[in-house]
Amino acid sequence: MSFRTTLDLLLYDWLLVQRLNSRERFSEHSRETFDAVLDTCERIAADKFAPFNRLIDTQEPRTETDSAGNLRVLLPQATANAFQAYVNSGMLSAAQNFDIGGMQLPYVVETAANAFFAKASVSIGFGMLSVGNANLLMAHGTTLQKKVFAQNQFSGRWTGTMCLSEPQAGSSLGDITTRATADGIDSADDPLGPRYRLSGNKMWISAGEHELTENIIHLVLAKIPDSQGQLPAGVKGISLFIVPKRLLHLNFSGNPAEPQVSLGEHNDVALAGLNHKLGWRGTSNTLLNFGEGRHPVQGHSGALAYRVGLPGKGLQYMFHMMNEARIGVGMAATMLGYAGYEAALSYAKTRVQGRLLSDKNPSTKPVRIIEHTDVKRMLLAQKAFCEGALALELYCASLVDEQHTAAAESADEARLLLEVLTPIAKSWPSEWCLEANSLAIQVHGGYGYTRDFPVEQYWRDNRLNMIHEGSHGIQAIDLLGRKVLMEQGRGLTLLSNRMNASATQAQHLPGLAADAQALRVAVQQIINATESAWASENPAHALANAVPYLQAFGHTVLAWIWLDIALTVTQHDASFSIAVHAGCISAKDYFYHYELPKINAWLQVVASRDMTCANMAEDSF
Amino acid sequence: MSFRTTLDLLLYDWLLVQRLNSRERFSEHSRETFDAVLDTCERIAADKFAPFNRLIDTQEPRTETDSAGNLRVLLPQATANAFQAYVNSGMLSAAQNFDIGGMQLPYVVETAANAFFAKASVSIGFGMLSVGNANLLMAHGTTLQKKVFAQNQFSGRWTGTMCLSEPQAGSSLGDITTRATADGIDSADDPLGPRYRLSGNKMWISAGEHELTENIIHLVLAKIPDSQGQLPAGVKGISLFIVPKRLLHLNFSGNPAEPQVSLGEHNDVALAGLNHKLGWRGTSNTLLNFGEGRHPVQGHSGALAYRVGLPGKGLQYMFHMMNEARIGVGMAATMLGYAGYEAALSYAKTRVQGRLLSDKNPSTKPVRIIEHTDVKRMLLAQKAFCEGALALELYCASLVDEQHTAAAESADEARLLLEVLTPIAKSWPSEWCLEANSLAIQVHGGYGYTRDFPVEQYWRDNRLNMIHEGSHGIQAIDLLGRKVLMEQGRGLTLLSNRMNASATQAQHLPGLAADAQALRVAVQQIINATESAWASENPAHALANAVPYLQAFGHTVLAWIWLDIALTVTQHDASFSIAVHAGCISAKDYFYHYELPKINAWLQVVASRDMTCANMAEDSF
Fold it and tell me: What pLDDT is attached to residue A187?
């Protein structure tokens, strides 16, 4: 079935998102308005994104030194066109209130609509970063910070970045050393917020420098030194700052609530260089130097910065949006996998080679390779991985909507389920849709290894997703070390109950009973392994095999998702074509027969608290 | 332990290759002569290969049109230097007889010595292709074909190619359409062999065009039409031909057994273009047009070709060397994995980030990442995969020596074991050492995703190995459809007996008893799954899950290899340092605890003859 058919099935038949219009926030929406957004995004992605996905890979961002000695970043024209088309679509403010020009779309529909862009060219756009930046300011900024910094991103006038990592501190944010010292002017004197000067280096900053827009709004984590000049230790010492690339002049002479904003001098932020990556080359990835004096402000070095919220709360603010950011990574991984699946399916339907195993006559005509069982196996695996991952991401996105708009008890359950599922939503597609991309190459044979076909790029692009926004190992520790324990394990219980509820629904249906039982067993294995891992109450024992736990947990969740989709197509049989119904059932069968049994091997080391790896001596490697 | 320590342990302590000097062919050799070869190769690889591995990736082969309108291939100078150093090492004729300038090295030592080059830069050299080409001629060519075409490759004067695939027929060689028609001169008239004119297109030809040597010897599969001009169907209609890029003039006026060879006109072979690949960019990969009239020979089109052996035996001759070719691919995959492991280990020992799980004090100093359990897990997996794969390849290489030099019964057993193990030797490292490369990226975090570190290139390079020289799917069908059945299953019985013999040796040793039992169970599961797969005697049922079978079989073989290595270090405890002993035992433990249990999931679908994939309807994808 086409991607759009899949999306419609998941949104309207499985998640029933059309029912969201009973909520006040979404009351002006309907399936028709959702479809209109999907149609628009599908069209723009096809016109302005997909045709340029190879171009942005071969013409990766490069730098040029301008006459003033500053590094400029050069991007292809296609990137500017794609960005402008995305701005024009209104998607930057899709989720915002009507009163600031938004569409008040449910997050799940926004996520579905953005899927078209991710599938067409995952790295050409960087709207997502601006939206994340602006959302954070909407949650924690002052009224003026929202108006000036967030709304100019929602409109596409400016773009934004998230500056967390430093060269010496990637995942370990407690060790950042970017320093923020008060600028000697108290907050009353600058309407944009308490003023600081920042100095430090930030690494892995996507879209950290470009000329697509006249300004870039950096959100930067930094530490405020104590009176002895010492930086506070750990994550509790981190504060959050707004650092515009170019400083602003505000003119309040008209309506004081609506100041006119014009651009002033260059702030003390300089591009130190670009990272040259394996993939994801449509987006520039930068090393930024803050406050090194390349662009002194008012005569001295230090990047002018406005604090957001309270000192010491920076990481908390940044992580407020973490669930959505991680769903975003999961969606990117999913859509890369899906793009590869589409390419492999199309190739397999046309490429002629070999004969069926039953045909020993070399004079018969060769068949299309989709007729070979092993090619079918590779395609069905891709379908099960990518459609399953898409369903998971949309489910998680729908939980975000529940959290924000459902009645109190449901909202709280949605929040807790999201806490538990987010590590899976981020990690599972990044591992298994990458595997899907590898299978897409394999279906193409030697051609898949050439740059004449798109699948090798998808595979390269997708390799990023297990690394950024919290690596696989970090997701695993988050899941087993925090999420399944929090609130006395209530999140795990809640999720288990939901999974078992699907099993109960399925157990009397023809063709689903065995899977229902297999899911129940898997859920119990997860619960048992969780308990066994923590039986000695020692994190070093419990977390020694956190990644195999994450893998088993993810496969169990996906098995649940597939059973639940199978329930939908079985119970509403008449609404689906025979082909769609059979496709869902086959993908579910594939997952239960080929994938779910893998959890035994993963959970065995978790349950036994296997210390083979933990005890490995360095000199024995 | 260092790579050389590993190699020494496997060669001299585990395989006891020094004992080969009791065989007449190797009687002039000893550990000292083997070590001298290893030393030389290690040094040349470090000097002439490793430093240029990134360069040959960024400066991939490109073409230029010369004044005559012909496409030339341009390669970096480093490639020429590496090739010349390899020629000077004598490795091209390492296995050849002393009387033609060879070293009469055992194949296992040749394989070990070549490992240094594969680890340093897998694609810069293309000596292996020439050796394969020349070996084939030594087995099936005439005396003069050997002297002219093979020996000039062993000396490095010329290089060779293998031209099998065609654009419309990759793996399906029975469908090739390259046509060979008699040149009207019978064999008596041309001392180089029966003369034909070839026309057709050959795809994926490595080193098909370059200017490093003055001539290139193509070995080409083609079909001889019948009297109606029809090509014979299937693989039985394939013949083998020698097509030199430049034609030869032989002068027999001196010693008629040693004709002087000089180069004549360009043969009718033309470069149609280069394939631009994901990796493996040190080697040009070409599309060649034979006989299209670009370089008419004696006034008319058709590439002048000399038949090798009998008509219709081409594929049989080509596959004569297939076991070695597939061991070569397995070694390439293994050494790419190993190179990544070395890089990741080195990075993990120096990169400082984060704190131990037990340390909640953010003021303590961060640790080197090798101290984190999950990093240890990723390194230990790489060690278990890559050292295990290396052991497997060397074991298979030693079987080649057994096959050629042992007493009759042992030689026959070695032949049969090789038949069964070759699909594993080719497929297992191509899958799991690729996974090792992915783990090496993961250990590096974001840095691993940049081209500033070597690991992303290893991962790209390694993705080829599941595709070429018989894809994963083809290896799987070869194993389950042919190798485990041949000679009434005697090969599988022989291998099972060897695996169980190791288990018997291990079962009373402390620390190995449980693994011995696990291996026995796994071996029996393989035997049972093989029988269940074929229980309906229907290839479509049996082979529907040939790839999962291949995966399970491979993991079982590797478990055996690791138990056998553990036996060696346990029984000869005193000879190894504590670190080496512990490293082998930990890798074995890792394999038995984390990897071997995976076979259950794979074998389940094999044993149940699961038809989920086979029955998938095309319109349900």
Answer: 54
* Residue B144 C-alpha, separation from nearest chain A C-alpha, in angstroms: 35
Interchain CB distance below 8 Å, B590 and A612: yes
Across chain A, mean pLDDT equals 95
Contacts of B54 (CB under 8 A, 6+ apart): B451, B454, B457
* Residues in chain B closer than 8 A to A543 (CB atoms): 357, 373
Distance from CA of A223 to the nearest CA of B (A): 14
The pLDDT tens digits of the residues spanning B87-131 come to: 999 999 999 999 999 999 999 999 999 999 999 999 997 667 899
Query: pTM here?
Result: 0.97
| A598 and B CB contact within 8 Å | yes
Interface with B, mutate which of A345, A349, A374 (most B CBs under 10 A): A374
CB neighbours of B334 closer than 8 A, spacing ≥ 6? B115, B118, B386, B389, B390, B393, B429, B433
**How confident is the model over B394-445, as pLDDT tens digits?**
999 999 999 999 999 999 999 999 999 999 999 999 999 999 999 999 999 9
A262: its two tokens: 């014009």
A476 in contact with B at a CB cutoff of 8 Å? Answer: yes
What's the gap in Å between the CA of A357 and the closest CA on chain B? Answer: 6
Minimum Cα–Cα distance from B368: chain A residue:
A618
Query: What is the pLDDT at residue A258?
Result: 86
CB proximity under 8 Å: B 205-234 to A: 233-234
Per-residue pLDDT at B223 exceeds 70 = yes
* CA distance, residue A402 to nearest chain B CA (Å): 32
Cα separation, A41 vs B471, in Å, equals 39
CA–CA min distance A587, chain B (Å) = 9
- Dihedral angle computed from the Cα positions of residues A312, A313, A316 and A321, in that order, rounded to the nearest 10 degrees: -130
Listed in order, strand segments (DSSP E) in A545-585 are none
A109: which DSSP letter? H
Please give the share of chain A, as a percent, with pLDDT higher than 70: 99
pLDDT band at A188 (very low <50, low <70, confident <90, very high): low
For residue B236, the chain A residues in CB contact (below 8 A) are: 362
Cβ separation A234–B363 shorter than 8 A: yes
pLDDT per position as a tens digit, A417-458: 999 999 999 999 999 999 999 999 999 999 999 999 999 999
Q: Does the beta-carbon distance from A233 to B597 stay under 8 Å? A: no
- Span B365-379, average pLDDT: 97
